[in-house]
């Protein structure tokens, strides 16, 4: 069976049936008038193109593409090896690739036994702990190099981090510590009012915020504001291969990037905690005087009596410890981040979670230690 041919005396296009394969024969010079090609037979799944003394240009290539494109999209098998190499190459690149049968989905992976899973998680936790200890060791070596005057840390970097960690954190520390001081004073006064001992609100607020609450709240604020920023900044540098460039130049990333950030937090955290304690004490005094009728001078006198050097020193030691832990967590997660935006986000989240966990554990351990020592 053959389809009617289309063409002139110098060119011809005709479909023929050869053993179930529809064959389009192109003959002659197709570089002249507009190209009109016959439609292929409807029932054939295999189609083949043959050329005899063919002269072609872009018009013929475009016409063949328009003819074959829906056939290729319908997964009809096309054989183009009978065309001139240039024309066959153009059509091969332009036509859609044949659709392959969908592969069978892989069998669902079986969840490992709980003992295996526990072992894997324990192994990962051990590796993370070793990486953290290794980072702390490198940080101590960088601190030793700083003491000897051979550090990669620049003074302007430390000054910049002091500004970012300290003054720029004052507004949020003021707000949160004021609200916490109000809550502590109000909750304590409600209980003390049952015994007519409202005057001791000052002792409760002063000792509570100076020893425990102000350092803890300040550290949590810095973990979310500063520690996350450290992880994001250093993680972005890792993704952009800037940390690799520092190593290539012989500059230790821990000394150049982590040390100024950890030192800045070690300096600013106790100062912010002391400031936050003062704000909380003032707000507690406002609650005691305005709501529970405590005399201002009595509140001030009791606050100064309760504010001993021992309480202040313990609060500052705790705040410094918390600040160092926040800096270590942020910088360690930033340097361990992957080289993608998702990895940087994951490192930022891990830094905040790790900082808060470390702060709570350290607060519990230091509180028990100081109580056992009688301080």
Automatic annotation (TrEMBL):
One of its GO terms (cellular component) is ATP-binding cassette (ABC) transporter complex. One of its GO terms (molecular function) is phospholipid transporter activity. The chain crosses the membrane at residues 170-193, 213-232, 271-292, 312-331, 352-370. Pfam families: MlaE. Keywords: Membrane, Transmembrane, Transmembrane helix. InterPro entries: Permease_MalE. This is Phospholipid/cholesterol/gamma-HCH transport system permease protein. It comes from Rubrivivax gelatinosus (Rhodocyclus gelatinosus).
């Amino acid at each position: 069976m053959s389809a009617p041919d289309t063409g002139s005396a110098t060119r011809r296009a005709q479909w023929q049936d050869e053993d179930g394969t529809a064959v389009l024969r192109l003959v002659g010079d197709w570089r002249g008038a507009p190209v009109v090609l016959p439609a292929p037979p409807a029932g054939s799944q295999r189609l083949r193109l043959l050329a005899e003394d063919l002269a072609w240009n872009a018009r013929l290539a475009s016409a063949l593409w328009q003819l074959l494109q829906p056939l290729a999209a319908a997964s009809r098998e096309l054989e183009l090896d009978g065309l001139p190499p240039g024309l066959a190459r153009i059509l091969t690149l332009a036509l859609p690739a044949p659709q392959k049968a969908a592969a069978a989905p892989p069998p669902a992976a079986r969840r490992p036994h709980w003992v295996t899973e526990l072992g894997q998680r324990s192994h990962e936790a051990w590796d993370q702990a070793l990486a953290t200890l290794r980072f702390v060791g490198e940080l101590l070596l960088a601190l030793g190099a700083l003491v000897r005057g051979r550090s990669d840390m620049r003074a302007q970097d430390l000054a910049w981090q002091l500004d970012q960690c300290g003054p720029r954190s004052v507004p949020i520390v003021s707000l949160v510590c004021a609200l916490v001081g109000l809550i502590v004073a109000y909750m304590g006064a409600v209980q003390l009012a049952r015994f007519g001992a409202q005057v001791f609100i000052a002792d409760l607020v002063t000792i509570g915020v100076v020893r425990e609450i102000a350092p803890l709240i300040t550290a949590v604020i810095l973990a979310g504001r500063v520690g996350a920023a450290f992880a994001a900044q250093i993680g972005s540098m890792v993704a952009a291969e800037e940390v690799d460039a520092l190593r290539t130049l012989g500059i230790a990333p821990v000394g150049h990037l982590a040390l100024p950030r950890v030192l800045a937090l070690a300096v600013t955290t106790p100062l912010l905690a002391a400031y936050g304690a003062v704000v909380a004490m003032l707000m507690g005094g406002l609650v005691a005087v305005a709501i529970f009728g405590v005399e201002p001078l009595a509140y001030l006198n009791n606050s100064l009596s309760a504010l001993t050097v021992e309480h202040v020193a313990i609060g500052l030691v705790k705040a410094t410890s918390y600040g160092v832990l926040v800096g270590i967590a942020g910088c360690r997660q930033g340097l361990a981040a992957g080289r993608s935006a998702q990895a940087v986000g994951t490192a930022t989240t891990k830094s905040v979670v790790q900082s808060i966990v470390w702060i709570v554990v350290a607060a519990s351990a230091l509180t028990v230690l100081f109580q056992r020592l009688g301080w």
